[in-house]
TrEMBL record, chain A:
Signal peptide: none annotated. It is found in: Cell membrane; Membrane. The keyword ATP-binding does not apply. One of its GO terms (cellular component) is plasma membrane. The chain crosses the membrane at residues 12-39, 83-104, 110-130, 171-199, 205-229, 241-260, 272-293. It comes from Paracoccus halophilus. Its main location: membrane. This is Probable membrane transporter protein. The keyword Cell membrane applies. PANTHER family: MEMBRANE TRANSPORTER PROTEIN MJ0441-RELATED (PTHR43701), MEMBRANE TRANSPORTER PROTEIN YTNM-RELATED (PTHR43701:SF12).
From TrEMBL, chain B:
Keywords: Membrane, Signal, Transmembrane, Transmembrane helix. Residues 1-22 form the signal peptide. InterPro entries: CHP02186-rel_TM (IPR019088). The keyword Signal applies. This is Membrane protein. It comes from Paracoccus halophilus.
Length: 307, 270
């Protein structure tokens, strides 16, 4: 079924979009990532203009992550206090990120910076997670039952002031690193046009030392609000949110997210992490190839962009 | 004070008058009725974009009106050009820098139509002289106007060629040789297919009557392409009340997320 999108001004197949939404929703429920890092490139690929893909992707992420967060609230795997503090940092970061994005757009290098960001961060995070989860998997195989993770390591993070008790995470740490993580993810999220879950999840595990159990729910909680804010910013500043496109993606996405959350309860955390790591590395490899291989077409055209 | 201005004004007037003079020589001047004139019509003057819009076909038809018998020398030809609204375009070129492909050069083109189809009885280069093409701006390279701002690259030609090539590949620019049918040197008809990815705006159809490489007469008709119904409502809302539109988009997303969650809970309980 072909459908004309009012803002994007292109014709697309409605079922393709529902399918795309479903796939990304599944990721969202399974891994606690908003799926923006997948939906945005996929929308480019089917011919949606990049600014609209970025803004509408954010809107879709709101729906899928909200659906996911509700499921996690039921299972009491959301650390709300941690979520709010991360969000406070995230909103500041996202605002800075949008300013940076506009500056890069004026310089004509926004594509390159976005792609480089993707390659670097996806590569680093994917590699780290893959290595870590392989090690964890091997450990459980050798010594049978999983040893409880030592979480009360008193590193630099614990020496800073403004300590807050995050009961759901079982942490008593300074709020400064939490705010900084939120802000850093916010900046990157705005530049890369994603919710930032794929950066947030490893940052929570490896930097803040949160238990994997609450990481996904808390990340989804933070992403819901952050991408709602991004959507609104895009709608107001550049009119690039296509609600028709968003609805089609959402229809697929919400269903996918629920299935993903169900699936997630049946898989072990190490297996989940190794799957996410492989996915992140695959996207990274694809983007790196695009940067280093000679493109088929050396010229590109953008309309209405005269500075 | 005014005296030194006079010669300046005169040259300015001359500059304005000159192109007008050139047009006087063209056959569409009112005093000199061209020997052959176009009488034409268009099947649709409004194209409505609905949600299920899947392209459209317009038929441009007409006849040649003459006061004298058909000249026997050169054959008569008809060119129909349908153009979409023009917009500013930036063309960028990638080069390899430190192993990575980076945008280096850029050319800004002031105005290029987002859609342009030329239908003609015979290939354009056989029936139109370059001079006449310059005057009437018919062929694809000429329909694009002026570079915007100073040129940053030495040679802009590969950039404009790339723009045409990219738009031809995606079906936005087309040249249909032989798509205009001319019957008995008098009646003509062109079927022009408009793609589904149309952009809203003021389109126009131009018809050119040619003989021996010269344009004898031209005819111009507007085509209005606009969104209707839900498409129009959403588009207007997004542009005029972006905040309301944004909140609406978020409300839909939240409602859908909650709805799916509730539905699945229900489903699991049973």
């Amino acid at each position: 079924m072909q459908i004309y999108l009012p803002i994007a001004e292109v014709v697309v197949n409605a079922f393709t979009l529902i399918g795309l939404g479903g796939l990304v929703g599944l990721m969202s429920g399974l891994f606690g990532v908003g799926g923006g890092f997948l939906i945005t490139p996929l929308l480019f690929f089917i011919g949606i203009p990049p600014p609209i893909a970025v803004a509408t992707g954010a809107n879709q992420v709101v729906a899928s992550s909200f659906s996911g967060v509700l499921a996690h609230v039921k299972r009491k795997t959301v650390d709300f206090r941690m979520g709010w503090v991360l969000l406070a940092g995230g909103l500041v970061g996202s605002s800075i990120g949008v300013l940076l994005f506009n500056m890069l757009q004026r310089l004509g290098q926004v594509d390159l910076v976005v792609q480089l960001c993707y390659v670097i961060f996806l590569g680093l995070i994917g590699g780290m997670m893959f290595q870590e989860s392989l090690r964890a998997l091997r450990r459980t195989r050798v010594s049978g039952p999983i040893k409880p993770m030592r979480r009360h390591q008193h590193g630099w993070v614990h020496k800073w002031p403004l300590k807050i008790k995050f009961r759901a995470s079982g942490l008593y740490i300074s709020s400064i690193p939490v705010l900084l993580v939120g802000a850093a993810v916010g900046v990157l999220a705005a530049i890369m046009g994603v919710g930032g879950g794929f950066i947030m999840v490893p940052a929570m595990i490896y930097l803040l030392g949160m238990p994997t159990k609450v990481v996904i729910g808390t990340s989804l909680f933070q992403i819901t609000f952050l991408s709602a804010y991004t959507t609104l910013m895009h709608a107001v500043s550049s009119n690039t949110v296509d609600v028709m496109l968003a609805v089609l993606l959402i229809v697929g996405g919400v269903v996918g997210a629920q299935i993903g959350t169900q699936l997630g309860t049946r898989l072990r955390a190490e297996q989940l992490r190794i799957l996410l790591a492989l996915l992140v590395l695959a996207v990274c490899a694809k983007l790196a190839l695009d940067l280093f291989l000679r493109p088929d077409e050396l010229y590109s055209v953008t309309t209405g962009l005269l500075q | 004070m005014t005296r030194p201005l006079v010669p300046l004004l005169l040259t300015a007037l001359l500059a304005i008058a000159l192109p007008a003079r050139a047009q006087d020589a063209a056959p569409e001047s009112p005093e000199k009725e061209p020997p052959e004139k176009i009488v034409a019509g268009i099947s649709r003057e409004n194209i409505d974009i609905t949600t299920s819009f899947d392209g459209s076909e317009i038929i441009i038809y007409g006849a040649v009106k003459r006061q004298a018998p058909i000249p026997a020398d050169d054959p008569l030809d008809v060119v129909v050009a349908v153009a979409g609204p023009s917009e500013a375009v930036t063309v960028r070129h990638k080069e390899r820098k430190l192993g990575v492909w980076v945008n280096t050069g850029r050319v800004d083109i002031g105005a290029a139509p987002n859609f342009y189809v030329i239908a003609s009885t015979r290939p354009l280069h056989l029936i139109l002289t370059p001079q006449q093409d310059q005057v009437h701006r018919i062929s694809v390279p000429l329909v694009m106007r002026s570079f915007a701002g100073p040129l940053e690259v030495e040679d802009a030609v590969p950039y404009t060629e790339a723009l045409v090539r990219l738009r031809q590949n995606s079906g936005y620019y087309r040249q249909d040789n032989g798509a205009v049918r001319l019957v008995e040197n008098t009646l003509f008809r062109a079927d022009v297919r408009l793609p589904s990815n149309l952009i809203e705006g003021a389109y126009s159809a131009r018809i050119f009557l040619l003989r021996g490489g010269e344009v004898l007469d031209t005819f111009r008709a507007p085509i209005e392409v606009r969104k209707v119904g839900l498409e129009r409502w959403l588009y207007r809302l997004a542009l005029e009340y972006p905040f309301v539109y944004g909140i609406m988009s978020l409300a839909i997303a939240i409602a859908a997320g909650w709805g799916a969650s509730a539905a699945f809970r229900q489903f699991r309980r049973n």
